[in-house]
Amino acid sequence: MDSKLDKVCHICTNLGVMEEEFKNQYEMLKKNEEALRVSEERYRLAVEGANDALWDWDFTNNKFFISEKWKEKIPLEVLNPKLSIIGRWTRLIHPKDLNDTLNAFKEYLRGGSDYFFSEYRLKIKSGEYKWVLTRGKLLRDRDGKAIRMAGSLSDITDRKNYEEKIKQLAYYDRLTGLPNFHCSKEIIGEKINAYNGESRIVLFLVDLDNFRNINDTLGHKFGDKLLITVSEKIKKFINKKDILCKVGEDEFLIIKNMKGTKEEVEIFAKEILNHFQGPICIEEHEIYTTVSIGIDIYPNNGEDAFSLLRNVDTAMYAAKEKGRNTYEFFNTSIYKEILEKTKLEADLRRAIENDEFELYYQPQMNLKTEKIIGAEALIRWNHPTRGLVSPAYFIPLAESTGLIVSIGKWVIETVCNQYMEWKKKGYDEIVISVNVSSIQLQQKDFIFFIKETLEKYDMKPELLNIEITESTLMKSIDSVAEKLKSLKDLGVGVSLDDFGTGYSSLSYLKKLPIDTLKIDKSFVDDVKNGSVEEAITAEIIQLAHKMKIDVVAEGVEEEVQLQVLRVQNCDKIQGYVLSRPLPKEKVEIFLKKQH
């Protein structure tokens, strides 16, 4: 009896334990279910909240999943459902991008890369194309067969539009929209690579005669209108297969495929000259301007784009030397130009000894205080027989011959000496800016020379500002960055000139010790309410201020430009609205007014 009772008790005890275990398991199951629900909810929220689309493609069952946000945009369901997923998808890809995208996918399937990666335009339900970036990775079975692929899809339209704007700035002339010098080199290079001997590649460099005089007399704004009119005039003259570029301030390059006989080329050159015989009407003015044309023919002269452009430029200057309103072929006799430059080089070497250089100063005004707080030093060469020689002509020659080193030292020493003179008169807080080339910066004694000269003239380092351009940076960015840091250690200011005209200027700001950005005149020219230039300058100023960098707008010529820049909180300006570059005596007139 007792044994039966014991068995019953034992069974009851086991049932109790089992019931307790069951309860525990049940509770655990509920917790697991809740955890799974929370996990799935988090995943759903992550997918729906992400800007990127997540997708999954099951090859075996031909099933395709994409997160809801993008599923609503992509019209896969309106395409033929009998088509494969890849078949339907490719019908949405822009025709110009399809081959590259398919090739990238095939290359990935062959094992050419670890991940699939492609950028292309995809048609969405609205009918417009969006730039997308697709990333993906394959899952293979034990036999290596692809069975599944998953990845992400990102909308990169804004980035692509921004890159296109940057490319437009880097490769196209802001004023006319024509391909610029850099772009023309690529175009010529492509034509040379495709050359098959059936025709010749003929370059015509068309330069406006006396454009500088027109610009100085009627102003830069009028000069810009003239350049636009001239570009349209040439466009109407050439045929659709010809390519027109703007490769200089007033220089237009026509790239033309021709048989290349001298007679045929001369006929076309004469037609260009005749095309500019009549007046050009702009506003109330009738402008009469002739052109000088340089001509070079591939493969007769030059092996690459650089040599062809150099040759045609040399030929154009030879045409100017002949009296303008004419054309000149590049040939061996063009070496007269080289001899002329050799003579000019000899004159340049003697210019410092003969005291032929002088400095002009263009005042800079603080927009908040409306006081003159600085000036940019600009060199002028008074040649004994040639008269005033443009810096645009002799500075490149000085750089190519190395004379820029001695000329640069003369400029810095003259600036420091000028500071000492102004200091005696009570003008001791004027910051003077000096343009410095990459060749000067690369000199081993450059920093020592700056330090020694500042001490010699008892000039505060913070009152000297060194201006460099992006092209100077690009020639040797690492060594230049090191020199700039050394200048900063001395207390000398550093400005980045012509900001915005290069392709990657923004990336330098984090790496280099820049105190000031100088917004290029090309942006300031068209600054007005609602313009693209206004938006760009506003962004530049805002970005600079966030990085504690001052901003100087150069080339300010009109009151409306000044007002817009003031509203945008630009720090300083320089330009004709304030003053043109002046000799040192006239600068003092400005300084006296505020003392």
Please give a structural write-up:
- It is a single chain.
- This protein is of the alpha/beta class.
- The chain has three domains: 53-155, 2-Layer Sandwich (Beta-Lactamase), CATH 3.30.450; 163-330, Reverse transcriptase/Diguanylate cyclase domain (Alpha-Beta Plaits), CATH 3.30.70.270; 352-593, EAL domain (TIM Barrel).
- 48% of the residues lie in helices and 23% in strands.
- It contains 22 helices and 22 strands.
- The strands form four sheets. The protein has an eight-stranded mixed beta barrel, surrounded by four helices. A five-stranded antiparallel sheet has the order 2-1-5-4-3, with helices on both faces.
- Strand 3 and strand 4 (129-140) form a beta hairpin.
- Helix 7 crosses helix 8 (220-237), helix 13 (404-424) runs parallel beside helix 15 and helix 15 runs parallel beside helix 17 (477-490).
- The protein is globular and about 90 Å long.
- Mean pLDDT is 83; it is low at 35-43.
